[in-house]
Amino acid sequence: DIQMTQSPSSLSASVGDRVTITCQASQDISNYLNWYQQKPGKAPKLLIYDASNLETGVPSRFSGSGSGTDFTFTISSLQPEDIATYYCQQYDNLPPITFGGGTKVEIK
Amino acid sequence: QVQLQESGPGLVKPSGTLSLTCAVSGGSISSSNWWSWVRQPPGKGLEWIGEIYHSGSTNYNPSLKSRVTISVDKSKNQFSLKLSSVTAADTAVYYCARGIQLWLSRYFDYWGQGTLVTVSS
């Protein structure tokens, strides 16, 4: 199985800050990586697909980059409504599809 | 707008079988998509259980494969999950999700609201 290591597991930042989350795959997954946002008590929501493509309707302050084994997810200017847990997910050589451990983002 | 709704018992006894159904509305389960189950233990991360195509083709997480069966009922526009020999470790919120496959892209674009299943005697 391909393991996805996400870091940090949690972070605290101020409104307006730039927030960066990283996800490392245990082997080369090309750009077969997605990012999801999950708010408490809710289902995950797709934000970024294929490492860098913004899902329709998602604010442009969210972005993703990377390929191979190292990926980055960025919120350019943190907003109060961005408080959530963020997950990366790979889909190369499935099964299985695997998720990172999640990054909980809080407001300082 | 596609909607997915999970249903099934919220409490299952240890060693029993967990059975859930996901009803799909606003779209056909026979469309060119994969239909998945994902679970999340309380306070923990997401785990993909498996998926099914309308043809009946399935993929399962190897860690659960011996206990999982996913099936599709095209006449009812729904798909189902059965997980046998459950233990407390199977206590989780279970989500159903639509998996898009476009050329080499794959992602979950619609999710159910999730249903909590507790394994306890």
Offer a concise description of the structure.
The complex is a heterodimer of chains A (108) and B (121). With 108 residues, chain A is mostly beta strands. In chain A, 0% of the residues lie in helices and 50% in strands.
Walk me through this protein's architecture.
The complex is a heterodimer of chains A (about 110) and B (about 120). With about 110 residues, chain A is an all-beta fold. Chain A contains no helices and 11 strands. In chain A, the strands form 2 sheets. In chain A, strands 2, 4, 5, 6, 9, 10 and 11 form a 7-stranded mixed beta sheet that branches. Chain A is globular. Chain B is built from no helices and 11 strands. In chain B, strands 2, 4, 5, 6, 9, 10 and 11 form a 7-stranded mixed beta sheet that branches. In chain B, a hairpin with a 4-residue loop joins strand 7 and strand 8. Chain B is globular and about 40 Å long. Chain B starts with a strand and ends with a strand. In chain B, about 40% of the residues are buried. Chains A and B meet through strand 4, strand 5 and strand 10 of A and strand 5 and strand 10 of B.
Key structural traits:
heterodimer, A: mainly beta, seven-stranded mixed beta sheet, B: mainly beta, 11 strands, 56% strand, globular
| Overall 3D shape of chain A | globular
Alpha-carbon distance between the two ends of chain B: 39 Å
| Helical run tally of chain B | 0
Overall geometry of chain B comes to globular
Low-confidence stretches of chain A: none
Structural class of chain B: mainly beta
Radius of gyration of chain A: 13 Å
What is the CA-based Rg of chain B, rounded? 14 Å
Report, as a whole number of angstroms, the end-to-end distance of chain A: 36 Å
Largest interface, with counts of residues having CB < 8 Å to the other chain, equals: A-B, 25 and 24 residues
Helix coverage percent of residues of chain B? under 10%
**Biggest β-sheet description of chain A:** 7 strands, mixed
Order of H and E elements of chain B = EEEEEEEEEEE
